């Protein structure tokens, strides 16, 4: 018995030491034990609880009267053995939002009697964290929904998000500020604070936001008067009791701050969840401002793109480019240099007034006497964030501290500079990259027009020759069409369907060839339609179009497969066969066979062949005016070869002519 009492005493000493409240109730509802922690939770003395009935816990405030039935039901279920234990969560102080978990379970004594043991744990912090997490998730969902609405402008989104933030933090003022040259300007705001309204400005040194700008992290002040002091210029001017703000970065550059405040201090510190939400709001604002700025620059580029493309001189393009950078990109120190290949120098063509004011008239740069040559020669955009660290700078005494160079192909280079270091962010670089593409294309077009003007007579001769080519080829193709029509009359007399089909197929093929050749002559070449074909039927079909009954075709059967455009391949063989008949005679023998060394085929005849000069001209795609009477047909052949990416050679032969065409793939 003494051992049992000693054990019980030891257990009670342990229970008294724990921080959780403990009570014991017997099955008739009488409280038989409470520890000091439970007395602290209820605000009652031990003798006020022990020996009284269970409803005393209701009177003490540990269990709310509204929860009493649930509590009794749970205890009865445990007493009856229906459940082993149960955890119930209660709010015991509405004002402080104090919450407890009460775990009740059955305990069997050594004498066999049953007690109900309750362990009470303060879970206020846990419940607060859970509620804060739920609130944070809810506000993030609202913020995401606003941000995802593409129909809203940035101004509309900013106002809604500021309102959401004010509601979440339970603070009346929210504002987005812009910081420029030590001045804070309110861009968007909610709330009725007189000085926190759009377009209101204040010196940065008299603003709460100076603390945010100076800090590496978000700034939250629960009691601004205590933290700043009553004589602080910001507190004197704005009279804000609490404040939380985060920096807004657009790319790598500071834009301003995203803040919330109230005229009174706050009853609690800004918790981790609230601080995280405000940081996210600042990041969102930076991203939206960056996107808005880039879209505005894209619109500016779109507006001037037509001006650039219809400009008639490089000087005009340079002026447009510099004005665009000044007006649309807000980069006032800008210039354009044109590359003079003859003298190997970069000559200034256009510059802004601000550039002239800061550094004077732009000089002509000799090779390697200025930093921008590195960018021009490499073709890469270079962004120098601190020119004072570059000993090779053209003028060591320059007031410029940062500069970016944008080469425009081999035509010239655009430069933008600033008197402060690190002035150019990602948006600036990307915007200038897009402008460079437009400028380079415009200058290329201008120079192309200049070259075309210089070659006007040569181009006219070429156009005349192409027109002649189209007319002659069309005439040559229509001759066999006339023969096909005659054959159609014979077919009708014999009334054999295969002849009708054959003639119809021939006519369709001729029409395709005519259309193809006319498009080539007018510079409107269509892309080849590559398919796998047996070469033998195509050779035989092309031969059937020749009007030379005494001529002979000798072709290996089978010739294998070929990857080609069928209509263009018929055009090629038709011209080669016609050339052989015209120069070899009506009884010429034409041979077609595969090349032994690699993929491709040859066409040979026993005619007079080509001279060395003619072979060289054909292989070099020479001037057809010097290629005697067979130039037009071979021009068409060369065009088909080029369209397929093949190679054409004219080997020397002892007798006759031989043309070899290599396709790059072996025929099967």
Automatic annotation (TrEMBL):
One of its GO terms (molecular function) is phosphorelay sensor kinase activity. The keyword ATP-binding does not apply. Keywords: Kinase, Transferase, Two-component regulatory system. Its EC number is 2.7.13.3. GO terms for biological process: regulation of DNA-templated transcription. The keyword Zinc does not apply. Residues 472-667 form the Histidine kinase domain. It catalyses: ATP + protein L-histidine = ADP + protein N-phospho-L-histidine. PROSITE patterns: HIS_KIN (PS50109), PAS (PS50112). CDD domains: HisKA, PAS. This is histidine kinase. It comes from Halorubrum alkaliphilum.
């Amino acid at each position: 018995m003494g051992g049992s009492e000693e054990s019980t005493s030891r257990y009670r000493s342990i229970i008294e030491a724990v921080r959780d409240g403990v009570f014991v109730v017997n099955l008739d509802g009488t409280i038989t034990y409470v520890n000091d922690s439970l007395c602290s939770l209820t605000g009652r003395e031990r003798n006020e609880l022990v020996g009284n009935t269970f409803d005393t816990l209701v009177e003490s405030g540990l269990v709310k009267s509204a929860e009493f039935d649930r509590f009794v039901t749970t205890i009865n279920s445990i007493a009856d053995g229906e459940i082993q234990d149960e955890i119930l969560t209660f709010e015991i102080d509405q004002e402080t939002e104090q919450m407890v978990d009460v775990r009740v379970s059955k305990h069997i004594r050594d004498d066999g009697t049953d007690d109900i043991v309750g362990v009470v744990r303060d879970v206020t912090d846990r419940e607060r964290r859970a509620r804060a997490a739920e609130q944070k998730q809810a506000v993030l969902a609202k913020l995401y929904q606003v941000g995802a609405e593409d129909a809203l402008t940035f101004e509309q989104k900013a106002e809604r998000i500021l309102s959401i933030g004010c509601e979440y933090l339970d603070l009346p003022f929210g504002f987005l500020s812009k910081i420029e040259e030590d001045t804070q300007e309110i861009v968007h705001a909610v709330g009725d604070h007189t000085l926190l309204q759009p377009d209101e400005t204040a010196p940065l040194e008299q603003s709460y936001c100076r603390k945010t700008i100076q800090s590496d992290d978000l700034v939250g002040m629960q009691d601004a008067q205590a933290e700043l002091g009553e004589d602080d210029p910001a507190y004197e001017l704005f009279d804000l009791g609490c404040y939380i703000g985060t920096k807004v970065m657009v790319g790598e550059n500071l834009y301003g701050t995203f803040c919330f405040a109230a005229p009174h201090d706050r009853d609690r510190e800004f918790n981790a969840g609230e601080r995280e939400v405000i940081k996210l709001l600042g990041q969102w604002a930076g991203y939206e401002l960056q996107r808005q700025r880039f879209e505005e620059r894209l619109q500016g580029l779109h507006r001037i793109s037509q001006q650039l493309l219809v400009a008639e001189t490089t000087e005009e393009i340079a002026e447009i480019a510099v004005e665009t950078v000044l007006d649309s990109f807000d980069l006032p120190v800008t210039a354009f240099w044109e590359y003079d290949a003859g003298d190997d120098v970069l000559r200034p063509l256009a510059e802004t007034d601000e550039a002239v004011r800061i550094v004077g008239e732009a000089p002509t740069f000799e090779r390697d006497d200025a930093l921008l040559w590195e960018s021009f020669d490499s073709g890469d955009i270079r962004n120098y964030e601190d020119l004072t660290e570059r000993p090779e700078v053209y003028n060591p005494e320059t007031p410029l501290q940062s500069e970016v160079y944008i080469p425009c192909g081999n035509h010239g280079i655009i430069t933008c500079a600033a008197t402060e270091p690190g002035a150019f962010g990602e948006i600036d670089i990307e915007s200038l990259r897009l402008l460079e593409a437009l400028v380079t294309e415009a200058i290329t077009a201008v120079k192309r027009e200049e070259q075309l003007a210089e070659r006007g007579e040569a181009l006219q001769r070429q156009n005349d020759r192409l027109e002649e080519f189209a007319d002659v080829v069309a005439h040559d193709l229509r001759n066999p069409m006339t023969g096909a029509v005659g054959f159609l009359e014979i077919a009708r007399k014999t009334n054999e369907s295969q002849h009708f089909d054959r003639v119809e197929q021939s006519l369709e093929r001729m029409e395709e060839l005519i259309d193809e050749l006319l498009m080539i002559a007018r510079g409107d070449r269509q892309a080849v339609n590559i398919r796998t074909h047996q070469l033998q039927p195509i050779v035989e079909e092309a031969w059937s179009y020749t009007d030379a009954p005494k001529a002979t075709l000798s072709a290996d059967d089978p010739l294998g497969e070929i990857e080609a455009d069928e209509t263009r391949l018929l055009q090629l063989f038709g011209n080669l066969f016609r050339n052989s008949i015209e120069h070899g005679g009506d009884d010429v023998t034409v041979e077609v066979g595969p090349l032994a060394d690699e993929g491709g085929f040859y066409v040979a005849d026993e005619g007079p062949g080509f001279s060395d000069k003619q072979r060289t001209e054909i292989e070099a795609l020479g001037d057809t005016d010097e290629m005697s009477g067979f130039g037009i047909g071979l021009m068409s052949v060369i065009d088909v070869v080029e369209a397929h990416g093949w190679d054409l050679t004219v080997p020397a032969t002892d007798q006759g002519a031989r043309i070899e065409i290599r396709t790059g793939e072996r025929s099967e």
